[in-house]
User: Fold Glycerol-3-phosphate dehydrogenase [NAD(+)] from Hemibagrus guttatus.
Amino acid sequence: MAAPKKVCIVGSGNWGSAIAKIVGLNAGRSSKFDSTVKMWVFEELVDGQKLTEIINTEHENVKYLPGHRLPENVVAVADLVEAVSGADILLFVIPHQFISRVCDTIRGKIKQDALGLSLIKGVDEGPDGLKLISEVIREKLGISVSVLMGANIANEVADEKFCETTIGSKDKAQGALLKDLMQTEHFRVTVVEEADVVEICGALKNIVAVGAGFCDGLGFGDNTKAAVIRLGLMEMIAFARLFCSAGPVSSETFLESCGVADLITTCYGGRNRRVAEAFAKTGRSLEELEKEMLNGQKLQGPATAAEVHIILKNKNLLDNGRFLTLRIPSHWMQCLMMMMMMMQCNSKLISQQLH
Ligand SMILES: NC(=O)c1ccc[n+]([C@@H]2O[C@H](COP(=O)([O-])OP(=O)(O)OC[C@H]3O[C@@H](n4cnc5c(N)ncnc54)[C@H](O)[C@@H]3O)[C@@H](O)[C@H]2O)c1
Assistant:
C-alpha cells in the first residue's frame, strides 16, 4: 500500500483555518493521509502571545476563526520552509498578493512530486497579460497545481452549514485524491476538468461583489443588484472565453458552485460587498475601511479589479464596449471610477506586494 500522504496548509487566515478543520478531520480518519497536518502560520502576537502557540495549545485560531475548535492533529508552524518540507500535498490558502514571495521562499525546498491545490482567489498581471495564481505557483515551484473554488464563506463552512465546492483538476487521479482529502458530509465536492475557468470564476466574482456593495451603499434595490450580478456573470464568461484559450470554456462550469453560486453568495454575504457598501456610503479610503472592518483580513476585490483593469487596458479591450459597459447606473460608475483612482494611487504599493 502507498505511504500515507503528508499534507501542509500554507496559510491560516479565515479560510485557511476553516479548511484546517476539514482537512484535519479527514486526514485523521483516512489511511490515505498522514494524520498530522502542518499549517503554516504567518506569525503575529495576539494579546502578547504568539498565534502559533495559541493554536497549538488551545486549538483555536482566535484571531482569524474565533469560536471554532481545530482538530488536535493540525499543528501550527511559524517557519514556512519547515512547514512545507516533506509534504506530498500543499494547500495554498493565503491572500493572492503574498503568493509570489511565499513561492520564492520555498522554491527548491519542497518534494519535487508534491501536488498543489490553490484555494486562492485572485489573478496576477504579468508582462503578457493575465496570469492565474495556479500558474504562478506552477512556474515558480515546478509542481502540478489544481484549484478549489466555490460558494464557501469560511465562517459558514466552519459552522458545518451545508455547501458545495468545485475542484478544477486536469488530472483525474489527482482530482479524485484531492476530493478524498476535502469532502465531508457538509462540504460536497464536484471535480471538473476546466481548472482555468474554475479559477477565473473565483477571482472575478470578487469584482462583481464590489459592484453589489456599491449598489447597497447607494441605496439601489434588489432588482438593481440582480442586474449587476447578471451583467457581472456575463462579463466573467466573456473574460474566460477570451483568456482561457488553452482549453474549452463550457457553460456548465459556470453553473457549478465555483460559478453562479459563488457569485451569489459573495454579492450578498462576503467582505468585499460589505467594505464596498461602506466605501459608497462614506467615501473613506479602502485601507481605512479594511483595517477598521476586517480585523487583519484582506480585501481581494479592489486589487483584482485594478489588475484586471490593467490587463484589459494593455489589450485595448476597455473601450470596445465589451467590458465595464455603460449599461450600469451612472452613480455606480462614479463609485467604480473613484475606487479605480484610489487603486491607481496605490498601484505602486500593490506591485510591491505582488512581486
Ligand atoms: N474567507 C473566506 O470566506 C474565503 C473563502 C474562499 C476563498 N477565500 C480565499 O482564500 C484566500 C485566503 O483568504 P483568508 O480568508 O484565509 O485570509 P484572511 O484575509 O482571513 O487573512 C489574511 C491572512 O494573511 C496573512 N498575512 C498577513 N500578512 C502576510 C504576509 N506578508 N505574508 C503572508 N501572509 C500574510 C495573515 O496572517 C492571515 O493569515 C484568499 O485568496 C481568499 O480570497 C476566502
Residues 124 and 333 are 24 Å apart (CA to CA).
